[in-house]
Design brief:
Blueprint (H helix, E strand, L loop, with lengths): L1 E4 L4 E6 L6 E4 L10 H4 L4 E4 L16 H15 L3 E6 L1 H12 L4 E7 L15 H11 L5 H11 L2 H5 L3 H9 L5 H6 L4 E6 L7 H10 L3 E6 L6 H4 L1 H12 L2
Length: 244
C-alpha cells in the first residue's frame, strides 16, 4: 500500500500491519521497490528518499543529516523504535539518524553503505579528461566543454544526476561518518556482498571495529545489489535483528 507523510510528501510502500517495525532506506538513484521482496509480509515501510521514486527532490542541496531529519520526522510519527535498513546512500542516512535520534532506532541493518574510508589505490581521471580540465583552467576551453567531459568520463551516478541532485551527490561524497559510528550504541548488522566492487567488504570490517555492538555477515556470489539480488539474505538479517 502506498502511503505519504508530511508536506512536501514523503512517499513510501507499506507492508503488513501498521505501524511499521522495519523502515527501508534505498541507495542513490534507486527507490522503495528495492525492498519489496525482502519486506514481503513484514510490518514495514520502504521509503522513497527525496529526489528519488515518487518523492520530490529538495529545493536546495541537502546533506545526509538533513535527509535523516526528514526521515526522523516520520519516525517520530510512527511512535515506536524501528529497525532501520539502509542500502548504500540509505545506509549513510541511517547512520545519521541512529547518531542524532537514537530513541527512534531499535537496530540497524546496513548493506553496501560507504560509511568508512579505506586505503585504496587512487584512480586517476582519464588522460583525456585531465587534458580538457587543464585546458579549461588555462581558459582554452569553455565550462560547457568541461561539463561535457565530466558527463563522459565521470561516474554513472554523476552523469545521471541533474540540478540539485548533482550538488547533493558531490557534497555527500565528501562526508565523514567515523564519529557517528563511534557514538552508536544500537546493534548493527553489516550485511555485505563478497563481490561488492562499489563498496568493498573491507568497509564493513573497518566499520565493525568502530561500532560497539556489530557483526559482519558476508554473502558469496553477490555484489553491491545484494538487497534485490538476495532478498532472502536481507530478510534473514532483518529477522535476526527483530529477534534481539
Amino acid at each position: 500500500m502506498l502511503k505519504t507523510f508530511g508536506t512536501p510528501p514523503l512517499f513510501m510502500e507499506a507492508t503488513g500491519q501498521w505501524p511499521p517495525e522495519v523502515v527501508g532506506l534505498h541507495g542513490w538513484a534507486r527507490d522503495r521497490n528495492d525492498f519489496r521482496a525482502a519486506f514481503h509480509g513484514l510490518p514495514a515501510a520502504a521509503i522513497d528518499l527525496p529526489g528519488f521514486g515518487m518523492t520530490p527532490a529538495p529545493e536546495e542541496p541537502w546533506d545526509t543529516r538533513r535527509y535523516g531529519q526528514q526521515v526522523a520526522a516520520f519516525l517520530h510519527d510512527v511512535g515506536q523504535p524501528v529497525v532501520l535498513v539502509g542500502h548504500s546512500f540509505g545506509g549513510r542516512v541511517a547512520v545519521r539518524i541512529a547518531r542524532d535520534e537514537p530513541q527512534l532506532v531499535r537496530g540497524l541493518v546496513l548493506s553496501g553503505a560507504p560509511i568508512m574510508r579505506i586505503d585504496r589505490p587512487a584512480r586517476k581521471p582519464a588522460a583525456a579528461y585531465r587534458l580538457i580540465r587543464r585546458a579549461n583552467q588555462l581558459g582554452l576551453l569553455s565550462d560547457a566543454r568541461l561539463e561535457q567531459a565530466r558527463q563522459r568520463y565521470g561516474s554513472a551516478d554523476y552523469a545521471a544526476a541533474q540540478g540539485v541532485l548533482r550538488e547533493i551527490l558531490v557534497g555527500v561524497l565528501q562526508e565523514e561518518y567515523l564519529e557517528d559510528l563511534r557514538r552508536i550504541d544500537h546493534p548493527v548488522t553489516l550485511l555485505w556482498g563478497e563481490d561488492d566492487r562499489d563498496v568493498p567488504v573491507e568497509v564493513a570490517r573497518a566499520a565493525h571495529h568502530e561500532l560497539s555492538d556489530s557483526e559482519v555477515i558476508t554473502v558469496p556470489g553477490t555484489g553491491h545489489g545484494l538487497v534485490w539480488d538476495r532478498p532472502d539474505a536481507l530478510r534473514g538479517a532483518i529477522d535476526g535483528m527483530l529477534a534481539r
